[in-house]
Amino acid sequence: MILEPLLPTILSVRRIPDADPALLRAYGADPDRHRSLGLITADQDDPVYVALDEATKHSGVDVVFARSFWAGAGSASGKLSGEVLGVLAATDPAEIDEGLRAMIRCLEHDACFYGANDDGSIAVFPHVIPSLGRYLSRESGLEVGSPMAYLVAPPMEATVALDAALKAANVTACKIFPPPTETNFAAAWLSGTLPDCEAAALAYAEAVVDVARNARQL
């Protein structure tokens, strides 16, 4: 099975080296520990969450804000909005720069959705993180350095595929996001050994493709 990558588009990247304390607090930062912010928007939300986690592996940044926008990039509020805003915070602006560079590398070369049918109208995110950073470790409740399968698809496809993934490998669902998410998808985070996470992600992708090909089955 070969899936066509649907690469995310980074829409904006900005740094605020000396943010106002009121702004820091509003976005979840601590003015006693943070002074600088790094902001990024893109047209795919889940790859950005993976990239935010990646930033914590390469820099002393904290992820203080990460939010998807209702209905997704197709209903964006503006040209640069996309479907997600991620915000990093740190004391040193150089740490922000390094964190943003790590995010850009991840979005350009690692984390993306894939087309599950011929015209790409059905997308799947069967992503495996070999070693969690501080952000997704905090969100998932898993240890830093743990593997995790990060699985996303549209509602019907995701429901059938999650069942297949859980039965395909010795994995545990640490978090399930039933439909609709903010972008009208569904998702799950699965934990296990790296080979088991990879097997679960493969089974998930295969099941999404199968539903795309056989939408009605009795």
Describe this structure in words.
With 218 residues, the chain is α+β, with helices and mostly antiparallel strands. The protein has two domains: 7-111, BMC (bacterial microcompartment) domain (Alpha-Beta Plaits), CATH 3.30.70; 116-213, 2-Layer Sandwich (Alpha-Beta Plaits). The protein contains six helices and ten strands. The protein has helices spanning 21-26, 45-58, 93-109, 134-140, 155-168, 194-213; strands spanning 4-6, 10-16, 36-42, 62-68, 84-90, 113-115, 123-129, 148-153, 172-177, 186-191. The strands form two sheets. Strands 1-6-7-8-10-9 form a six-stranded antiparallel beta sheet, with helices on both faces. A hairpin with a 7-residue loop joins β6 (113-115) and β7 (123-129).
Structural descriptors:
single chain, 218 residues, alpha+beta, Alpha-Beta Plaits, 2 domains, six-stranded antiparallel sheet, four-stranded antiparallel sheet, 10 strands
Summary of the model, kept short:
By secondary structure, the chain is of the alpha+beta class. Helix content is 36%, strand content 27%. It is built from 6 helices and 10 strands; from the N terminus they run E-E-H-E-H-E-E-H-E-E-H-E-H-E-E-H.
Which sheet architecture does the biggest sheet show?
A: 6 strands, antiparallel
Q: Low-confidence segments, ≥5 residues, pLDDT <50? A: none
- Helix segment count? 6
What is the H level of CATH, i.e. the homologous superfamily of the largest domain? BMC (bacterial microcompartment) domain
Enumerate the strands of the largest sheet in spatial order, edge to edge or round the barrel.
1-6-7-8-10-9
**Helices and strands, in N-to-C order?**
EEHEHEEHEEHEHEEH
Give the C-alpha Rg: 17 Å
Number of E strands: 10
In whole angstroms, how far apart are the ends? 25 Å
The name of the CATH topology of the largest domain is Alpha-Beta Plaits
The residue fraction in helices comes out at 25-40%
β-strand percent reads 25-35%
The SS-based structural class is: alpha+beta
| Mean of pLDDT | 97
Name of the CATH architecture of the largest domain = 2-Layer Sandwich
CATH class of the largest domain: Alpha Beta
Q: Globular, elongated, flat, extended or rod-shaped: what is the shape?
A: globular
How many domains make up the 3D coordinates? 2
